[in-house]
Hints:
The chain is an all-alpha fold. It is built from 14 helices and no strands. The radius of gyration is 21 Å and the shape is globular.
Amino acid sequence: MLPAVCGLLFLLVPLAGLLLRAPWATVPERLFSPEVGEALRLSLFCASLATVVCLILGIPLAWLLARGEVPGQGLIRALVTVPLVLPPVVGGVALLLALGRRGLVGRYLYDWFGVSLPFTTAGVVVAEAFVAMPFLVISVEGALRAADPRFEEAAATLGASRWYTFRRVTLPSVLPGVIAGAVLCWARALGEFGATITFAGNFPGKTTTMPLAVYLALETDPDAAIVLSLVLLVVSVAVLVALRERWIRGAL
């Protein structure tokens, strides 16, 4: 019990410090300031769009890792999880070298289509999707491995196509894992800082998400940084609790 209580305190005491030091008298005024509203809207928009990107790309990737038979599958799985342990700033540098105007892929995007991702809102979405996708892939892969494949085999024997089986049999059976992965992915994208500031920069109204706004405010107005941190804390906890209680446990 003692190590368990120490571990719990280790996680909760910093949050308690944030709540106790918050300037509650000025919270309403700061919450309705244009800067906070702008940063919050941008954060919610980018995190949601990044989650959609992760769902579109991550579910097929998880299926490949769980059900596919490709050489080097273990290596592919390791590469997919690299962003989990890679420092976010390093991830931002890697994105810049790959998708910048002179990057490995970015040069062709710019020369052929006139698309430049760095220091744009789209760049924020790309950076957040890069660091958040492993959470979705790991969750969905685990759900796929735990699912009973006999239902898919039964559908195949009845003449169902692979795409129809995936949509009507496989995906509904792993829906709790997809929802859990999407929630974790969204929360991770919402709090992303290092890769965002490195790849997308910090331009108010364009790339300044809530974590970046907290960083800027901490240097000049610590009380504003605390209020912004409270907003992020409340939004993250509310979404995680609401979605887990309503969807994940209900699905299980």
